[in-house]
Write a structure and sequence with these properties.
Number of helices: 6
CATH superfamily of the largest domain: Type I PLP-dependent aspartate aminotransferase-like (Major domain)
Radius of gyration: 21 Å
Strand order of the largest sheet: 1-2-3-4
Number of strands: 10
CATH topology of the largest domain: Aspartate Aminotransferase, domain 2
Distance between the termini: 28 Å
Strand content: 15-25%
Number of domains: 2
Structural class: alpha+beta
Shape: globular
Helix content: 25-40%
Order of helices and strands: HEHEEEEEHHEEHEEH
Length: 261
């Protein structure tokens, strides 16, 4: 619809006794922040799991945690926490669940404790024995590259801290809002969806978005993702993103060139 949010009424209408779980992404593909807390409560009454995917974890620097909004399982991608894009990977995912599902988790769980001198330390507290004695039945495998990615993310989070992540998330929010306001004033263009977004916005163009993208490439501007390949009704729409890596000057230049293409 015009908001860009998932149709929760459609989900409610199609829930039945055979529905084991509903998977929802927030912020979603369009960058729109979903509101699913009420849905989570309804699904809990039905004994149906709500699984939330967080493709941009920095959003959690300012948004209420999914676990406090009714999610039973939360998965996501941690690439933006200090990992370079590296032509497609490797990245580091994250996985969290309610305590009652803990023993069904694949992989290893590390817990905090103290050593013999009272210093804070971390140890392996839970892992499936099959990983050590019955490898063919193991539920997961952690290779060296993933371990290195996880370490890099850990270092990044330790350096940023809770307040640093919040400040960075707000900085990203302001940059994307500046992009949204700037492009909404370009003649012939408009913001596709009305709901709140994080980092990403969808721009409705006066002609096919791939033509706009190609024209901007002539000015050495990589302007985003044409959405027609994914949604035929959005052939004229372009998915754009602004983060702390984008300057105000670069956003202004994009707006200026859109006036001419």
């Amino acid at each position: 619809d015009s908001t860009g949010k998932t149709d929760l009424e459609f989900i409610r209408a199609n829930l039945n006794d055979k529905t084991s779980a509903v998977v929802l992404q927030s912020p979603n593909f369009f960058g729109v922040v979903e509101e699913y807390e009420a849905l989570g409560k309804e699904m809990a009454e039905r004994d149906t799991l709500l699984i939330v995917n967080v493709a941009e974890p920095l959003s959690l620097g300012i948004l209420k945690p999914p676990g406090e909004r009714g999610a039973d399982i939360v998965v996501g991608e941690a690439q933006s926490f200090g990992l370079p894009v590296s032509y497609g990977g490797p990245y580091a995912g994250f996985f969290a669940t309610r305590e009652k599902f803990l023993r069904q988790m694949p992989g290893r769980v590390t817990g905090e404790t103290v050593d013999r001198t009272g210093r804070r330390s971390f140890v392996l507290t839970l892992s499936t024995r099959e990983q050590h004695i019955r490898r063919e039945r193991a539920t997961s495998n952690i290779c060296t590259n993933q371990g290195l990615c996880a370490l890099a993310v850990t270092v990044y989070l330790a350096v940023m801290g809770k307040q640093g992540l919040r400040e960075l998330a707000l900085f990203n929010l302001r940059k994307a809002d500046y992009l949204k306001n700037k492009l909404s004033k370009v003649s012939g263009f408009e913001i596709q969806f009305s709901a709140d977004t994080f980092n990403e916005i969808v721009l409705k163009c006066p002609r096919p978005a791939n033509e706009i993208r190609d024209a901007l490439l002539e000015h050495k501007i990589l302007a985003g993702l044409p959405l027609g390949e994914y949604y035929t009704e959005l052939t004229n729409s372009l998915l754009l993103c602004a983060t702390e890596m984008n300057t105000v000057e670069s956003i202004d230049r994009l707006a200026d060139k859109l006036e001419t293409v």
